[in-house]
From TrEMBL:
The keyword Cell wall biogenesis/degradation does not apply. GO terms for cellular component: cytoplasm. Residues 231-320 form the Peptidase M20 dimerisation domain. One of its GO terms (molecular function) is dipeptidase activity. It comes from Buttiauxella noackiae ATCC 51607. The lineage of its organism: Bacteria, Pseudomonadati, Pseudomonadota, Gammaproteobacteria, Enterobacterales. This is M20 family peptidase.
Amino acid sequence: MKQPELAVHELAPRMQQWRRDFHHFAESGWLEFRTATHVAETLHQLGYQLALGRDVVDDAARMGLPSAEVLAREEQRALEQGALPQWIEHFSGGFTGIVATLETGRPGPTIAFRVDMDALDLGEMQQPSHRPFAEGFASCNAGMMHACGHDGHTAIGLGLATVLQQFSDQLNGTIKLIFQPAEEGTRGARAMVAAGALDNIDYFTAIHIGTGIPSGTVVCGSDNFMATTKFDVQFTGVAAHAGGKPEEGRNALLAAAQTALALHSIAPHSAGASRVNVGVLQAGSGRNVVPAQALLKVETRGETNVINDYVFERAQEIIRGIATMYGIEAEVKLMGAATNSEPSPEWVAFIRQQADEVSGVTQVVDTVKGATGSEDATLMMARVQEQGGKASYMVFGTHLSAGHHNEKFDFDEKVMEVAVNTMARLALNFPWQRGV
Ligand SMILES: O=C(O)C[C@H](NC(=O)Cc1c[nH]c2ccccc12)C(=O)O
């Protein structure tokens, strides 16, 4: 049994530096320009072969992409904040994905690990009671915050890269480390799958920290992600004089408001849990003008793909019906998608066995009850499994200062050691002769 503990413990200060640097320069989905250049440079220095940008992110399959104007402005911002110019061209235009490969030259399967790099669209709390602010690493980018732990995931990915490189003479086969953009809004994974980045992988593991799991607990085969569809609805009506000729107007604001209420009253499904959220409603232009424009940002979720599809289809009928009722146009644009997940039992069993040996781990479970959030790593898992590979999703419990997606979110950085130790063991102790 090979034990990476000592090497990982020595790496802890580097991982903390990486994590705090990524936290400080938080970048939302498809805008991870600074982050991606530093990840690429570190992996390159370690001797990994890199596939970057358009080679691992399919242009047409990207969902929920910011406008060209925002992409250009944020790339400039990243350069001013220390993005490395020698790598930036690969990621320019929002192609912020990386696949790093370590070929051992010895026969054996391909084992892949996936982490995500994006921050959330949320402003970070700037108060001394919030540790990242008190210790000087709170986000310096307005409206962008690592409030879901992906700064930790990226640091874990680099920590794992370092340890596996150190132990490379004890590995067989091929190791792939996948750094994904735009997990929030479940937008990025589909583009990496479409680019073929998940092809020919035998064993795949994606990870998350936190999610309400207590410190010391490791979940080896999360099977409770909700299938989800993210979409925008653009309503276009007719502007008119609200006092003089209201009958000539077609009111997009009222259509959007009716739609928001109706979406939240879709009947539940007898087969399991579902969700609807209208997260944004923007409408109108002036007090005395019949509003001609309205935008809704919506997500549906379901415990299974069937339940999510049911809610999504009902939502489309509601949108069409209300648009007809108000005599306006409604354009629906798909912004993100993910499925539910079915981890491969043999791979989960092997993960459980390895996690059990990691110091600091007090409880190892296969899964936890109850539907929670969504994850587009499920699309990657499905791709690997379609091709005959095995896939799982792990969660490493840690103490949180506030819930995910909250402006006071922070986590206990010790979890990064637990994660790297567990993941490194999956490769180091893999039964190369027989597989799992
Ligand atoms: O749908 C998304 O946009 C992805 C996003 N994903 C996460 O937040 C990760 C996540 C999955 N499950 C949990 C449970 C608790 C916190 C965070 C998570 C979500 O569910 O809103």
